[in-house]
Amino acid sequence: MADFLLVHGAGHGAWCWRDVIPELAALGHRARAIDLPGHGEDNTPYQQVTLDLYADAIVAALDRPMIVVGHSMGGYPITLAADRNPLNFLQLIYLCAYVPQPGLSLADMRKQAPSQPLLPAIRRTQDRQGWTVDPTRIRDLFYHDCPAETVGYAGSKLCIQATQPTSVSVETGDNYANIPKHYIICTDDRTIPPEYQREMTRHWPRPDVSTLDSGHSPFFADPAGLAKRLDQIAQG
């Protein structure tokens, strides 16, 4: 049995893992998801949200050794949290997530991708401190292979994504380097191009990279398949 901490991506919350948690439980694991500051049921104003706050929330949630899964934008805060306080990080799993590169913010990394599918759908807040996604585009970008009810369910819960966490870089050292890692490439991702996910992991050992035949939201599209993959990774 393993303990999983599930960390969502931009605009999402703990709610996006609703179908994966029972699937992991059926395989004998314990799993819980958290709301990062400003997401889900956490009421921190987006203007006050920072990448540091995200990392602090992840460290605070680790009350025992756990495997930490970060989806999409969640790759940045799980990396920062692990480098700051690696004590309870058994392993990091990047699920179609950004893996921070030296000196580059997430926004910088997005610009380096071979295509920019998300950019035309971004709608900035008037104060420029946050952004949302055009609701008419969320199905095609995030949920094109998910059950029909997903768009309504997720669309009612997506929140403003603070700009600050995606505008700062993450530098790492030995703490981060010494934690085992695995990357799951989603081969039909329409948000982070799969070829860019492969580029981010080009120098990783091949056993530490796997694929899922899924779009950007496998937690809705194939929760059983995702749970099985997490189970396989946990078992080494």
TrEMBL record:
The cross-references to Pfam families, in alphabetical order and at most eight, read:
Abhydrolase_6
**What molecular function terms (GO) are annotated for this protein?**
methyl indole-3-acetate esterase activity; methyl jasmonate esterase activity; transferase activity
Transmembrane regions: none
Q: Does the keyword Transferase apply?
A: yes
For this UniProt record, give its keywords in alphabetical order, as a comma-separated list.
Transferase
The record, for Gene3D superfamilies, names: alpha/beta hydrolase
Q: What is this protein called?
A: Acetoin dehydrogenase E2 subunit dihydrolipoyllysine-residue acetyltransferase
Organism in which the protein naturally occurs: Thalassovita gelatinovora (Thalassobius gelatinovorus)
